[in-house]
Write a structure and sequence with these properties.
Helix content: 40-55%
CATH class of the largest domain: Alpha Beta
Largest sheet: 6 strands, mixed
Number of helices: 18
Distance between the termini: 42 Å
Strand content: 15-25%
Structural class: alpha+beta
Amino acid sequence: MRNRFMLAGLAAGISLLTLGAAQAVEIEYWQYAYETRVTAMDQLIANFEKANPDITVKQTTFPYDDYQTRVIAAKAAGQGPDVLQLFYGWLDKFQSGGVLQPLSPTAFPHDAIEADFFPIVTAMKRGDDYYGLPTAVRSLALFYNKKLFEEAGLDPSKPPQTLDELVAAAVATAKHDDAGNLISEGITMDMAGQDHQWWREVLTRQFGGVPYSDDYRTVTYGQKGGAEALQFYTDLQNVQKVGQAGFMDEGQAAFRGGMAAMTIDGTFRLGSFKTIDQFEWGVTELPASADGTRSNYASYFANGIGASAQGEELAAAEKFLAYVSSPEAMQIWLDVVGELPARKSAAMTDANLADPILAPFLKALDYAHTTQFVDEAGQRQVAIDMANRVLLEGQSPADSVAEAATAEQAIIDAAAK
């Protein structure tokens, strides 16, 4: 009976709120600490518990930098959550570490998943099994400060649509003191933020290359596109002097503080940027290359079921997972966090497509790529180190990209052993 109702709930997108547990049970949910995400989950838990009074959900959060370590350590200690959130790029690490159990195909039928969710959901599939479902998906866009655009004589209703226009707008809006020091960025430079995704999946393709082979097991950005993309990126600091790595520590902090005219970031930033009250900001699609090529990076955090969940806890965990991946939950997540619903029907509504803030992100899903990481943190660090060698040590972009390609290929090869 439970599985039959779970199947109907997933296919129809209902919340399964009429189901009761056989007896009182408490389950634990883990995610990393990010204010709007925690707030949204608090709302979802309250809704779920109200409709399922025999199930209590305890939310536990950890700092982002400690989260993966805490999850792995809990599993090693024979503990851990019943339901947990994970970045899609962590799946191989969590699966090989025994953190997750595959989703029951009876409770979560594959044909329903693949019919209802955006195709990138398959990044949570290994072999014949799914290991999680997303509540929301994310893509990138260019955020811009309309006040700084106006001060520089730019029309805030016409944000940059090409890379050349991006550089021109950054030059116009960057501010320097009498000694030439940057005091307000034209565009942020934060490779540890979303710039590594911009370089990898967007700029590399716009400069004529592809970052990896189709199966993401062979690094190819060293052959074509990657060096040109890094040259463009590092020239923003070294030549145009419109951005600076480490300026105000993080790119999003500089933009929030009104000290950067533009920043590239994801839908997950919408919730926190809504609190900005000292200036009006806008969003536009990532600029195209000179020949009109657009690209983007799409990603998501998924929710999976912990390996230790069994019996009544497993039944409750499946019900909770079905609810947090329902259209109702996705709308709450969109309203609070700003991330787009992971179900196509919930995301591609007339209202969302007409929204000047959401539309650029939604359009990007049509041409976005989802990097298949084997070690997301390690592969991100390769890109950070690559940029730093050029910006801090004076290495040429071509040499730095070649070094990065070798280092990243070693990570991918090691994961295959």
